[in-house]
Amino acid sequence: MAAEPTPAKKTGVDPSPPAPGSTPIPTASPNAFASPVFRPGLEGVPATHSSICDIDGLRGLLTYRGYPLEQLANQSSFLETTYLLIWGELPTIFQLRDFEQEVQMHRRVSFRIRDMMKCFPASGHPMDALQASAASLGLFYSRRALNDPQYVTEAVVRLIAKIPTMVAAFQLIRKGQDPIQPRDDLSYAANFLYMLTEREPDPLAARILDACLILHAEHSLNASTFSARVTASTLTDPYAVVASAVGTLAGPLHGGANEDVLDMLDQIGSEDQVEPWLDRAIASKQKIMGFGHREYKVKDPRAVILQRLAEDLFNRFGHDQMYDVARRLEAVAVDRLGPKGIYPNVDFYSGLVYRKLGIPRDLFTPIFAIARVAGWLAHWREQLGANRIYRPSQIYTGSSPRDWQPLEARAPIGAGAA
Ligand code: ACO
To answer: What is the domain count for the chain?
Structure first.
């Protein structure tokens, strides 16, 4: 395997630790490759070129391959949007039919994967189960032929098709039931709800879930997509790419926030408690879950659409009191935090929608993952098209070189030189 180039080698400095007694390497040696400005969280630092998605965070606009998200959410389907994201153009009627049929044919997962999932602890988080199951696909489809378009297409179809089946399977397995087989006569979203609840869903519920998947399908270089691209840049297989992205999405500052929003609303309890709760939260510098976004300085356009979908659901299936609490919290929090550019993000209303669809709270993030697989795979393909392994630099802040000491000569940690 080729050695990884490091700035130290290029500047002629040997990066290996010095032998005891040798001349120490100067710690503050100038690094010709380091960025002159360190930006925590890489804020504002471009890490790739991409033609997949564009965000205008000041005007609250989001496009996939140039198409406004609003239009896609209203008129497209998740599989059509997935095709658009991954292959770059909207499919023709024949291309869409073929893609839908391929995905439908690959929805089933091997009994070995189902058996493996039966060994997972029922108390484990479904995102951990999904990460492990997604990675396990690499064992079953171990051929790696990244330059073969057929291999790429098959991997895309498999991941889009099987991830929902695995999420639904874990849900039934942890309840002590056997997973049920997908139904070929149901659409992508309807089949997922069917596999989850064992009931054929209401068409409006399926349509709303499909729109939610469109809204979550892609969002430029967010943390999980960056993870996917870093993993892709090593030329590993697409199952490892998706598994690493699932792990990144799981955190509460990213996809996991939608669970926390419902906890927060439950904790507030009622509309009249919103203001005192928010006062305490702001005073103690607590973050308001479902608020704030690195890219948006106005309300996230996905939150605008999700709020409308939530209202459609409530009109049809009955009101949720927590929606009133959420709206009151939005009004008061925007008043206080809006001047800092902090507004509701995609996670603020998504939990209320999923709860009304009868989805358990800890499946909210796995559903986000089902959708985001489309974006991760679009970035995987794009990364392979102009690949260079990601290898940023760092600013070293550790000890200057020093000699190893035998055990008996070491002072206890924290002991002063009294
Ligand atoms: N509530 C209150 N204050 C906030 C919030 C919030 N939700 N978000 C940011 N701020 C404040 C910070 O306290 C900070 O204030 P200061 O400058 O006075 O110290 C300032 O805004 C900047 O905050 P950062 O955390 O540095 O912003 P960053 O861009 O790094 O973080 C993030 C973005 C992680 C989304 C953040 O807003 C947050 O933690 N929000 C809550 C969690 C959440 O909803 N995550 C989902 C994001 S959407 C997604 O991933 C799908």
So the answer is: 2
308 Cβ partners below 8 Å, 6+ apart? Answer: none
Edge-to-edge order in the sheet of strand 61-64: 53-56, 61-64, 67-68
Do the domain assignments include residue 409? no
Are residues 193 and 167 both part of a single domain? yes
Residues of the chain with pLDDT > 90, as a percent, come to: 86
User: Of the candidates 214, 252, 153, which has an alpha carbon nearest to the alpha carbon of residue 372?
Assistant: 214
The catalytic position among 216, 219, 260, 293 is 293
What CATH number does the domain containing 170 carry?
A: 1.10.580.10
For residue 64, what are the β-bridge partners?
A: 53, 67
pLDDT at 37: 85
How far is ligand 1, taken at its centre, from the CA of residue 291, in Å? Answer: 7
What's the pLDDT tens digit per position in 24-82?
A: 333 444 454 555 689 999 998 999 999 999 999 999 999 999 999 999 999 999 999 99
User: Do 182 and 261 reside in the same domain of the chain?
Assistant: no
Question: Which amino acid, residue 68?
Answer: P
Please name the residue that has the structure tokens 């073969």: 148
Residue 167 included in any domain: yes
Report the distance separating Cα 354 and Cα 362, nearest Å: 11
Secondary structure of 107-121 in the HEC alphabet? CCCCHHHHHHHHCCC
Task: Give the 3-state secondary structure of residue 365.
Answer: helix
- For residue 364, the one-letter residue type is F
Same domain? For 231 and 194 the reply is yes
Active site residue 216: no
277 and 312 within one domain: yes
Structural domain of 308 = 257-356
pLDDT in tens, 227-270: 999 999 999 999 999 999 999 999 988 888 888 999 999 999 99
Distance CA 299, CA 301 (A): 6
**Please, which residues have CB within 8 angstroms of residue 75's CB and are 6 or more apart in sequence?**
none
Residue 8 has pLDDT above 80, yes or no: no
Instruction: Respond yes or no: is residue 347 known to be catalytic.
Output: yes
**pTM score, whole prediction:** 0.89
Question: Would you give the distance in Å from CA 238 to the centre of its chain?
Answer: 15
Give the residue whose CA is nearest to atom 46 of ligand 1: 254
Domain match, 233 and 286 both = no
pLDDT tens per residue, range 158-184 = 999 999 999 999 999 999 999 999 999
CA 340 to ligand 1 centroid distance, Å: 10
| Ligand 1 geometric centre to CA of 290 (Å) | 9
